[in-house]
Amino acid sequence: MPHTFEDLVTLERTAVEAHAAITTAADPDVARQTAVDASAAFQAAVTAYAAAEGEPRVKVEMAVKKAVRHEAAG
Asked: How far is 64 from 57, CA to CA, in rounded Å?
């Protein structure tokens, strides 16, 4: 099933939260691996979404990151 833009936002939010959790994790190595896995899932989904939509990959990634940052600020 193809990802929606909202799915990409959720994946990026998950990755951001996973990276932030590294500093307070009981096991930083596990937390770091979780963050790496979350980031990889986001990157793969962005690539697939961009290809399916015929959009430049970087344009999609930046739009998602902007949406997540705007969400965090507001």
From this structure: 11
For residues 42 and 11, is the Cβ–Cβ distance under 8 A? Answer: yes
Residue 74 has pLDDT above 70, yes or no: no
11-39: b (≥16 Cβ within 10 Å) or e: bbbbbbebbeeeeeeeeeeebeebbeebb
Q: What is the pLDDT of residues 15-71, one digit of tens each?
A: 999 999 999 999 999 999 999 999 999 999 999 999 999 999 999 999 999 999 987
